[in-house]
Design a protein that fits this description.
Strand order of the largest sheet of chain A: 9-7-10-1-11-14-4-15-17
Radius of gyration of chain A: 25 Å
Oligomer: heterodimer
Radius of gyration of chain B: 16 Å
Number of helices of chain B: 8
Number of strands of chain B: 0
Largest interface: A-B, 39 and 40 residues
Helix content of chain B: over 70%
CATH architecture of the largest domain in chain A: 3-Layer(aba) Sandwich
Strand content of chain A: 5-15%
Number of domains of chain A: 2
Largest sheet of chain A: 9 strands, mixed
Number of helices of chain A: 14
Shape of chain B: globular
Shape of chain A: globular
Number of domains of chain B: 1
Distance between the termini of chain A: 78 Å
Chain lengths: 482, 184
């Protein structure tokens, strides 16, 4: 009785004690907090096809000195086949998505099937007129121009690679199958005591959030699934876990997936980045911003085979950090699971699985030899008014915004005096230093009642019952005739 | 009197036949991952054309062929060969199916309707040719309606939990066949 009472007292008391993140400090780099922002459905050329050129800018001197990634600017004939999205327009019709559409586009590396595969909206690209603030992030920090979607398909398989370095499906699907929690990056972090949280749009979705369909057992961790508002309060109070995910999906357009207006997502990103930069943890933080799949939009670089898997088209990856190189374009071949590889590398964990162990870790993006860069504040005034919280209403007339004027920003440091090259690549994989992996063989969770085995048994039972019924009836008929 | 006999045959044979045929069709689509290739609205035309034509033709074949175990065996082997060929076609195309392939595959998938029709005919052989033709046509039409109804449910619910289709239909057909086997 006494021991039961003491357990109850301990539980009640511990409920009020802030969670401790002991393992957050044990890192290979000065980065103690990694924040991963995940959006939807844009290729590299769709967002950065003409970066950093903005002919309307009054700061051509800055633009002329910026690094240029592999994009449409090097191929005028290709650019002529595509259409810029007009200033004042912030969305396109939804290009057709999916395994089939993307394979038609790809056409065994010829990349000549975009109109056939995804329709005319695929042949468009955004400019500074819509993406000035996001281009500012790429300019001030680092941009990867060889970051490929892991699978030549749409959201679900690519998201699974983002969360588990593995997919059992080729398209948007069920569930089932799901990936067991223990085989996801969440499971690995949980297993090693590295703190993590996933931040989603709303509190009341913690167990029903659509992304959790992909990870079975995620619902057993409601304490790690928090709303965006908790992210903001954790930031300001210095309680951010080691690894965080900010999911934009399911918030009526914040995820930027077509045919949605991309401005809500851009405002949300810039709001979050400002909050991160102003937080007490800025000096030990890195932020990755990427999009889940190409969305059917054009990209010009034939995707490589990565670890035996035909990857999909390029996606943008922006890394914001006091250690991110300024105006840096990484040419390293990366993919969603490279972020998992960085987590494993930084927190000294085994690679999540074989796939993760063999993808490049995005280390060339960082300069850990210099002192951390000071924070920036992104404030564009009425040209692009930033929201005051993660939930907000759009300005009444987006046409009155002058988004192009937000780009470029003055570089934080003189680009000519930086102690590093502003282009580069580095092939470094976890397998090159250790053969240890956390998940030796990936499996999937399929409830027995949903398995093809059970359904086949049911089908055989139907057939057996039919045959038995016929035999009974015939036997009865024969007996009656006798 | 004929009306009652026909109505009984329709309710006890043609409807369960359409449910079981649709269940087998869904089971194959689930097992072969064909369902995962669908998602492009342009695929819906050839997909449903194959199902519509195939369901009616194969159901008629089943109900109008001779009601013998030998015929049933032949139709079963033919259906299995068509399903295996379809799977080979899907696998050969790495699940990237053009319109013609989808048309052929969906048509072949409905071949299960023939042995199902013949099996049900073995239950009751005393129907006239016009009645059997009507049962065949109705089995095909109701299969199409079940496919359409579940497809709409599947699409409007975010293309999730496809297994519910074959699971529910197999359970219903099992119960209906159990009842049928108890009826004198």
């Amino acid at each position: 009785m006494v021991s039961t009472l003491s357990i109850v007292i301990i539980l009640v008391l511990s409920a009020g004690i802030p969670r401790a993140y002991a393992s957050s400090e044990d890192t290979r780099t000065p980065i103690k907090h990694l924040i991963n922002i995940f959006l939807e459905n844009h290729t590299f050329d769709n967002y950065f096809g003409t970066y950093p050129i903005d002919s309307s800018s009054l700061n051509q001197g800055i633009i002329a000195n910026l690094s240029t990634p592999v994009n449409l600017l090097q191929n005028s004939s290709l650019m002529a086949e595509l259409s810029p999205i007009a200033a004042g327009t912030f969305s396109t019709p939804d290009p057709i998505e999916g395994n089939t559409a993307y394979h038609i586009e790809w056409n065994h590396g010829h990349l000549n099937g975009f109109v056939e595969g995804s329709g005319p909206p695929s042949m468009t690209y955004y400019t500074a007129a819509q993406l000035g603030p996001i281009w500012d992030l790429a300019e001030e920090y680092s941009l990867a121009d060889m970051y490929f979607s892991p699978e030549l398909s749409e959201s679900d398989p690519n998201t699974m690679y983002y969360l588990a370095g593995f997919t059992p499906v080729i398209n948007d699907y069920g569930p089932p199958p799901s990936i067991p929690f223990s085989q996801s990056i969440f499971g690995e972090l949980e297993s090693y005591g590295v703190s993590w949280d996933a931040f989603i749009p709303y509190q009341n979705q913690s167990t029903t959030y659509s992304e959790w369909n992909k990870i079975s057992g995620m619902n057993n961790y409601p304490g790690n699934i928090l709303p965006w508002s908790s992210f903001v309060s954790d930031l300001s109070s210095g309680k951010l876990p080691a690894v965080s995910w900010l999911f934009s999906q399911d918030d009526n357009g914040t995820d930027q997936g077509p045919p949605s207006n991309i401005i809500p997502g851009e405002m949300w990103i810039m709001y979050m980045i400002n909050e991160i930069e102003e937080s007490p943890t800025w000096n030990s933080t890195a932020v990755t911003i990427t999009w889940d799949d190409p969305g059917g939009y054009f990209d010009q670089v034939p995707p490589p085979v990565i670890n035996g898997v035909q990857s999909g088209f390029r996606l943008p990856l922006i890394v914001v950090s006091p250690f991110a190189k300024e105006d840096y374009v990484s040419n390293t071949v990366l993919t969603h699971s490279s972020i998992l590889a960085f987590i494993d590398y930084n927190w000294e964990l085994p690679a999540l699985n074989q796939y993760v162990s063999r993808v490049n870790v995005p280390l060339d993006i960082f300069d850990f030899n210099s002192t951390p860069r000071g924070s920036l504040t992104f404030n564009f005034g009425t040209n692009f008014p930033l929201p005051q919280g993660p939930y907000f209403n759009l300005p009444s007339s987006l046409q009155q915004l002058n988004i192009a004027s937000t780009f470029p920003m003055p570089p934080q440091y003189n680009l000519g005096t930086l102690p590093y090259a502003r282009h580069g690549a580095a092939n470094f994989t976890l397998s090159s230093v250790s053969s240890e992996v956390f998940v030796t063989a990936n499996t999937v969770d399929v409830p027995f009642y949903a398995s093809t085995y059970f359904l086949a048994i049911l089908a055989v039972a139907n057939i057996a019952l039919l045959c038995w019924g016929v035999l009974i009836r015939r036997g009865r008929g024969g007996a009656e005739r006798r | 009197m004929i009306g009652r006999k026909f109505a009984w045959g329709f309710a006890s044979l043609a409807i369960p036949g359409s449910i079981f045929s649709t269940a087998l069709l869904f089971l194959f689509a689930y097992w072969s991952q064909l369902v995962n290739t669908i998602g492009d609205t342009r695929q819906l035309g050839p997909l449903f054309l194959g199902i519509v034509v195939g369901s009616v033709i194969f159901s008629l074949v089943g109900w109008l062929s001779r009601s013998t175990w030998f015929t049933l065996s032949l139709e079963t082997i033919a259906a299995l060969l068509l399903l295996v060929s379809s799977y080979a076609l899907i696998a050969a195309d790495s699940l990237v199916l053009n319109g013609t392939t989808i048309l052929i595959t969906s048509f072949a998938m409905t071949s299960v309707s023939a042995p199902v029709g013949t099996m049900l005919r073995l239950y009751r052989e005393n129907y006239s040719v016009p009645a059997r033709a009507a049962f065949g046509a109705l089995q095909g039409v109701f299969s199409i309606l079940f496919v359409l109804a579940f497809s709409i449910y599947y699409e409007t619910n975010g293309q999730v939990i496809f297994f519910i289709g074959p699971l529910v239909l197999l359970a219903i057909s099992l119960v209906s066949f159990l009842i049928l086997s108890r009826v004198k």
